[in-house]
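Protocol step 4 of 5: obtain the predicted structure for the target chain.
Materials: sequence only (see below). No template structures provided, no constraints applied. The aim of this step is simply to have a reference model before the mutagenesis design in step 5. Sequence pasted as it appears in the construct record:
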Amino acid sequence: MAPSKPQNLDSLHQFIQRIKQYPVTAREIVELAINEQADPIVVNFYRAFRDDEAFDSQDELIIRSEQIQLMDAAAELEEHPRAPYEWL
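Step 4 output (structure tokens):
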């Protein structure tokens, strides 16, 4: 079973705090995550980006990461709709 979305965001936020130099590309983020033995959630998340996708600041990286996370959560809900009683 996949970790919950808040845990994913926590892992991403914790890792983003370690990145000190911007701009940074997705490829550099993946390499840094591997070298620092970051949570596999982080490595896999940024592998989904184009290697040359660049982030100019920490704020941009946080915003883009949260947007993707929310889109993934929405897509997951569309793929696995639940009956109203399952939300209780």
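Step 4 remarks: The radius of gyration is 14 Å. The first helix runs from residue 5 to 16.
Proceed to step 5.
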